[in-house]
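A quick aside before the break. I want you to see a complete sequence-to-structure record at least once, exactly as it would be stored in a machine-readable document. Don't worry about memorizing anything.
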Amino acid sequence: MAATSSTVSNTENLMKYMKLDQRGSVLAEYIWIDGSNGVRTKTKTLPGPVKSYKELPEWNFDGSSTGQASSENSDVYIRPCAIFPDPFRGGDNILVMTETWDPDGSPNKYNYRHECERLMEANAKHEPWFGLEQEYTILDADGWPYGWPKGGYPAPQGPYYCGVGTGKVFCRDIVEAHYKACLYAGLQISGINAEVMPSQWEFQIGPCEGIALGDHLWVARYLLYRVAEEFGAKITIEPKPIKGDWNGTGLHTNVSTAEMRKEKGIKAIEDACKKMGERHEEHILVYGEGNAERMTGEHETASIDKFSYAVADRGASIRIPRQCAQEGKGYFEDRRPASNGCPYRITGIIMETIFGGMEGTDFSKAEQ
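That is the input. The structure line, written in tokens, reads:
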């Protein structure tokens, strides 16, 4: 059942216009990340279909309205870097992932993609694969978890994780719609499931190699917000949306390199974990805001001020799956990132820590 809200789109009326002939024109939805880690978009009309982001023009927006520039020098430029089929408009219409750049030709201070891509390209020989598990919570129009008693709480956690049936899961229609939209857009979405807290869900993006992970996750977030619009629901990726004895939301990050996937790759995994431990505080700084409320050492989290890694332990900072330990190769899962973390910053600092940084690149000192 859809969420109740006066802001639900009138899809039936809209469809009359969505079917109109665009007379050869193509609509390109330019997507960028603003100064508060949110998603912004605007639409450009193109004269015809394109096959590559390299065919698209640079554009600009008012950065003073997005927290990315002052009003005295407000122009911020958006440069296309990836395109995807648009599941809302269909046809040849596209979604365009972009980077933000300042008028002087330097990356905007909130452009984390640029530095991340440099690191990925410099370390391409290691073939880094990433898979991120995006948890989120669906809220009603009043900002309370959908399906919860107004001003009250449901039964304690237990029956909701991967649950089935009325009273155990809420807003599955939004989740299914988002899943299909991601598949249509060509995103590497590998699964979904209901999470531990009611109205909390998760989708997984990956495995993706290098910079593609960040592009796919940000576009998947955009699609989730857009789908929720049509159901009159709100999406929050705050790491601890409900205080008390309720699970928080994370962005567990799975990491594998060519060295880790080889026979006896467990040594490369353990070496990486040790390096991650040496920079624990630097990683926490870029793993999302409000993470201290989530990482308390309870509800399947480690304490934010301590680092640990272990096999099959969901209370550790980094978990090595038991299957990987038995096979002696595979990947590790960094359980520290918060649900609102930026994937470019997360994967960027992981690459920096494991393989070393580059001149002009330091994710631990990136703008907060």
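Two observations worth writing down. The longest helix spans residues 212-231. The chain has a mean pLDDT of 95. We'll return to this after the break.
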